[in-house]
Write a structure and sequence with these properties.
By secondary structure, the chain is mostly beta strands. It starts with a helix and ends with a strand. Strand 13 and strand 14 form a beta hairpin. The strands form 2 sheets. Strands 1, 2, 3, 4, 5, 6 and 7 form a 7-stranded mixed β-sheet that branches. Strands 9-8-13-14-12-11-10 form a 7-stranded mixed β-sheet. The chain contains 2 helices and 14 strands. It is 14% helix and 48% strand.
Length: 178
């Protein structure tokens, strides 16, 4: 008898939850530049703020993609996304799927705005230098007068942070190394 009651309770819970109950709508702010991160490899990540954290100084690395969202560097986006729980995701794939619902605003950032990107973390370098300097073969770096210093730090330090400003959509200029 107890088993039948327990099965009825479980069945009631399962059937009362529609798949929409697992979906959540959240507001996000996407920063004007991408950062670097380490997961199952080396990644370029979006920097995001969610819901009540929007407008704070706290940015979190976002390793997933947002379906329907075409990120362009140099802009801060305020967007609304639907987050859906994925049952039985593939190995090394997120259990969440984010889909763009609305772009609430887009603001271009002044090209003189500076920002920091980790160039090397725990000995893992995000920089390629053949034939030119790039972050993960995607973002071109004009190292200006700092090319030699960058090479020395890449060879001798485990942690490097570069301060940049934007030159073009896919090119940034190194202005300081930490």
């Amino acid at each position: 008898m107890k088993t039948k009651v327990l099965l009825l309770i479980i069945a009631g819970i399962l059937f009362s939850c529609s798949s929409d109950d697992a979906n959540q709508t959240i507001d996000m702010r996407i920063n004007h530049y991408q950062s670097t991160g380490i997961g199952e490899g080396l990644f370029l990540t979006l920097l995001v703020q969610e819901n009540n954290n929007i407008g704070s100084g706290n940015w979190n690395k976002f390793y997933d993609s947002i379906e329907g969202f075409n990120y362009q560097p140099g802009f801060i986006y305020d967007i609304r996304v639907v987050v859906e729980l994925i049952d039985n995701p593939h190995v090394d794939v997120s259990s969440l799927k984010c889909t763009l619902q609305e772009i609430k605003s887009t603001k271009e950032v002044n090209s003189e705005t500076t920002f920091d990107i980790d160039l090397k973390i725990n000995g893992e370098s995000f920089i390629t230098s053949t034939p030119s300097y790039k972050i993960l073969d995607q973002i071109k770096i004009d190292c200006n007068t700092l090319c030699n210093e960058l090479d020395i730090k890449l060879e001798n330090q485990d942690f490097i942070i570069g301060t940049f400003k934007r030159l073009q959509r896919e090119e940034i200029q190194l202005i300081n190394l930490k």
